[in-house]
Amino acid sequence: MPIISRAMLAVVASLLIAPGARAESVTEALAFSYVNNPAIAAALYSVKIAAEDIALRQAGKRPTIAAGANLGYSWTVAGGTFTDSGSGSVMLSYNQRLFDNLQTEAQIDQARAMADAASEGLRNSEQNVLLSAATAYFDVVRDTELTSLRGDNVTFLQAQVNSAENRLNIGEGTRIDVSQAEARLAQAVAAYRAAVNSLQSSRAAYARWIGHPPTSLNPNFPFNGLLPASLDEALQAADANHPANLAQRAQVEAAKFASDAAMRAFGPTLDLVGSISSAFTTSPVVPSPSVSGSIGLSLTVPLYAGGALGGSARIANLAQTQTELQAQVTYAQVRESVIAAWSGLQTAIALIESAESAVRASEFALDGVIEERNVGQRTTLDVLNARAELTSANEALISAKRNRYVASFALIAAAGRLSAAELNLPVSIRSANAYRAGVEDNWSEMREVDDF
Question: Is the pLDDT of residue 97 over 80?
Fold first, then answer.
């Protein structure tokens, strides 16, 4: 007969609650996840990289200055005469584009739009991490409670097996009663072991998203007005604030500027070119040293580039159309997620009310059936069925409570408000805004790469 030993129960108990550990709140877990999750850090670096592209594009409006030097030595032997000479020069060159049909301006605007998209991508990554962390948190809470509930059910059914055997021994029961109790016990043991396995998986997900194993958890969380009051309010908030929508809008803007830049490549460019150099030689024939310089304007008008300019323009136009279509797809997906989260939340609330009523009724029914069985008016099967109904009602209540919390966080995320700032987490908000401002206003080639 499959029975769970006390040793196994002790091991599982160590998974459920760490003795003496202080309960970790949802807020504390989310704060730890926000600070330590590498996905958010990676997204921050994406913003930083995108900001550096602004500097690359701005370089097209700024001068390039280069210095050079060379040294040489030569010798000859002719008619028994040896002659040699040395020479050297230093040069400074200057080149600046004065006009390029505003192509560089369009490329700078494109880079800024892409940096905006990266910033919204950071917000989206933050939402995804926090939602995954919250889901992992409440999965552990659910599976912990389910494991405890099913463990209690195993204990109850073991007692019923013992009771049925005792009644059989004194002639008040039947072998059928014992077999039915043993069958239910076997099912309960299997369900318990499945719950233990699910709990282990949930704990692994918790460690992945939050950054450390769970100890004792406190699932209460004050949403403090974060939840939308209606579906329409949630949809309006998502349309205006969801980072996926805003990122796509920024990418559409970037695509427009890219198309503009490709068309402006057909125009003329005007460059200011200058240089100054000094040369010397040790040869007595050539005076040494000498200084020379030049300055001038260079105008280039593209007439034919083998189809490259036209191909680039067509690619940019096609990419713009593609990006606009992708924005429509994202818009629909975000609205779908809002509706799904809203529906999930309403369903969970209704199921909680139903499950609470079912638990109260099942508890009363089980107590009554046991009393009637004890006086011979009910059978062991009736007790087993009543217990199964109570267990099912409790499991439905536990799952519904978990679903309500997860759907609430999913709804906040779908509305574009699941962030460390909105949740009022006790953390320093990580942002690349200062880095981007420094990039836009910096002319130096080499500088310190500040941490976020």
Answer: yes
